[in-house]
Amino acid sequence: MSVDSLWQQVEQGQFAGVDGVAVHYAILRHPNERGAVALCTGRVETYLKYAELVAELYGAGFTLYLWDHRGQGLSGRMLDNPHIGHVRRFDDYIEDFHRFYQQHIAPAGHRYRALLGHSMGGAIATAYLQRYPEHFQAAALSAPMYGIRLPVAKAILQPLVSLLASLTPGRYVPGGHDYEPVRFEENELTGDAGRYQSFRALYEAQPQLQLGDPSLNWLKEALQQVDHLAVAEVTVPILVMQAGQDSIVDNAAQCAFCARQPQHQLIRYDGARHEILIEQDPIRSAAITASMQWWERHGAAAPSTVSTANQAAVAR
């Protein structure tokens, strides 16, 4: 079955997030599932970008839950300029996720529930697991935002950002601008030209998905959140998949997070740029395999319990 054909089976809708912001979601239910996976995407992203990954995980026997965070993708914006990546409180992301869980994931009664997150979505997922450890059995996180690569020292930048955000919270960070596609040769996200061009084409075809740089308040909230995660204790086992060539998030913060909590594990992919889940096949396939093995290690049903027909390869 092709990705496009499979996507016709996806249930899509929206719910009211914090302050009534419309949060769009998608669900792909597996008739003979090994478990359920909730995909928590990164900043700027939309779940539509992960159609290939969704098809692969469905082919491996999982039910999929996806949603677009407030202020991006298909979800509602909080500012007049829809390109500014804004949030009032980082906790709003977590509360939106909780509402989605309560309304759609919990009622389904899955025997096993896992999390898959990327970048900002990794930070949201980790904070969620700290708050609601009983909701998921394990998580695999691609380049989680446990720290942010900054142009100047955080000790200097953070108080300045907090001051500016208190005055003009919805303005772009200095130098910020509306969505502008970057040529593949200049991108910092992936070494896979085909996948990179595919997601750029998606954003051109659906301009409502386009998002520019973050607001001052988003950066203030994100910096406060990574400070929280630096000391957070999370009992749910997390697999951290680190991109060796990451220029977006701080790899040292990922190492520190795993080093102080033995239930977590870190795998480094030396040739990977920030977006491991749309990287070149050798890296990407290894990361997806590692994620599924991690979930199996922590309670997901083995592949042999899913019918062979449901494991058929999905055309890319």
From TrEMBL:
Regions that span the bilayer: none
Residue ranges occupied by any Serine aminopeptidase S33 domain in the UniProt entry: 32-281
Descriptive protein name: Lysophospholipase
GO molecular-function terms, A-Z: phosphatidylcholine lysophospholipase activity
A Pfam family that the UniProt record links to this protein: Hydrolase_4
UniProtKB keywords: Hydrolase
InterPro entries associated with the record: AB_hydrolase_fold, Hydrolase_4, MAG_DAG_Lipase
Signal peptide positions (record): none
E.C. number: 3.1.1.5
UniProt keyword annotation of Lipid biosynthesis present: no
